[in-house]
Please model this.
Amino acid sequence: MTANLTAPPATAERRPAAHRGTRRPRGHIPAGHRTVVSPHQLNSPWGRRVYWLVLTLVVASFTAAFVFPLYWMVTGAMKSTEELVAIPPTFLPSRFSLEAFAEAWELMDLKLLMGNTALYAGGAWLFTLTVDVTAAYALSKLRPVLGKLVLGMMLATLMIPPMVIMLPAYLTVKDLPIFGWDLLNTPWAIWLPAAANGFNIFLLKRFFDSIPRELLEAAEIDGASPGRILWSVVIPVSRPILGVVSILTVVNVWRDFVWPLLVLQDPEKMSVSIGIASLSSQMPQNVLIAALVIAGIPTIIVFFIFQRHIMAGLTAGSLKG
Model:
């Protein structure tokens, strides 16, 4: 008696017994891939045309919604005052001119105002990274006693409207506790409140929590101290979140109006937003718009600079097993 060495069909081995002998109907789509438009219809010539048409319309609409106000502001600065207030408004200036930009730079002393604001934004960025990164690292990896309570109290401050703490913050800056220093009309009045940001600490802690513990333990075995681990291991792989925090910090300080208006009353130390607002009633409308365009250029540059670091960190921060 000889054994039957004929192997069954491969498809019969892989298919469950309950489904053997059954065939899928033509055009059947797995349950996990069911959508409004089937893949068969989407891959057809008509489906591809409709897909690209809808995608183009959506992208163009969102792009126009974000870019058109910027375009209207730039072209408005190139128009004369009469053309700027004309009804109906003109889509393009009758004569492209950069005279309003030169007048705004000279009449509003934008060099001084933007220099002051750059000092405030740069210092706030440096203090924010120094204070918030170390605080988030301690809460995430060092895990001190009552660390969860401290984090909860930080997050509780996010529930308080900013206008409610405006007066206590002003009194604190005017008479710094323990030291008794008056920080009004100094950069410290901008730097210290910017560094005390519970939202940034929360963002950084959540990112630090995702860093594998084994990576830090390997550095500890090599004899690295907690400070060295933070500088050599944690920060290099945290470039994406550091870029996000940097953008938020610089933009918030650059565009802030109410807080600098309270603590920076010296005309020589005003930020650009306060300086433009204080001189707006004395300037032609096209010169005022030109000043706003010039004041907005640095924030756009900062965004594009840190955007490159974010994209680079998404790949450079990966770990190989």
Confidence is low (pLDDT under 50) at residues 1-15, 313-321. DSSP finds 16 helices and no strands in the chain. The domain at 110-316 is CATH 1.10.3720.10 (MetI-like fold).
